[in-house]
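Please check this protein record:
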Amino acid sequence: MSIGYACLALGVPGSGMKNCIMKNANEELLLSLIGSNLDALERLITYNARNGIRMFRISSDLIPFGSSLAEDLPWQNHFSEKLESIGNDIRRSGMRVSMHPGQYTVLNSTDESVADRAARDLDYHAKVLDGLGLGPEHKMILHLGGVYGDRERAKERFVSRYKLLDAEVKKRLVLENDDKLFNIRDVIETASAAGMPAVYDNLHNAVNPVDASCRDIEWIEMCRDTWTKEDGPQKVHYSQQNPDKRPGAHSESIRIDEFLDYYHEVSVTGTDIMLEVKDKNLSALKCINCVSDRGIKALESEWARYKYSVMERAPDRYQAIRKLLQDKSSYPALEMYRSIEESMDTPVSMNNAVNTAQHVWGYVKDKATGPEKKRFQNTLNDFSSEKTELKSVKNVLHTLAKKYREEYLLDAYYFYM
């Protein structure tokens, strides 16, 4: 079973996607943005491979205006070597990637122009995966669409439109249940009629259930019948409810004990798990580290990234985790992450924030110029006097870490949490 995350990563410098507004888009700018985004994707694939992350969703923003302005742009030919290189890295690492067209890609729309745009958008996503030279096990996930006053007719319309799609799209397309309109039974029935796989999303099912007595594993097993050998291992989407937001909103982080309950139930199916969560790769690594013994060095590596985020919230837990990791013959992953989760639930206090900022400052203070030292001290004083936010202090430190290439700091989660 592989575990992964979607689109963006925290603490991976140079991995963000770039875009522009439509009125500024021209061929030169679009090619420049595409080149930058492919470089970012390459960094993400390298990061995932290095950290043992074998599932990843590629952002739909990879090719700006990919199904409209850039539709006829020969970006596949222009970046063929880069695409081939990234595809080779994906295959070499045993990674499985996917893409997920957005909410406006509505194949079963009653408006033919909307359905046509949806088909073009699916063509674009397939071109990305084809350009990377990846097989049909690398999927594109889509929701069923709208009900339009007639659920059964809407499902039939999806099937008929699906059958008209290009073969390169159909071999990759997977149907997912949503949290408002089409439940998992609707999706299984429609996917079966179309001859395509169905993906089960646990949180969508919790918000939009068809049978509350049916457990996750039962729906997963029913979905499994829609998958063929050519589709690769079955996959599911997993997320947890954010307690402070609307039903269906993803949590900031995956709670490890709740995830392990789910994992132990569904692990018999061997399905791949795509996490949908705000902290992206952080939760992916947490879950991966807790379901397999990856050695104490893997935990030490993650702790180095978390340590200042913990220090500014809970110095006592900071010391406890340091002590926990002193036994090099142990693998206390669950204990470490439980303690980190408890720390993240603790509000940042003024004193702890100032103390932590001074620790981080220690990495760059001997390199900083006189004006830079003054700027840091003034910003820290303003924060202490409640004249500015902690974010301002972190921005100063982040700028200095980038200038002086303090990779240890740039890899840390301190600037992102």
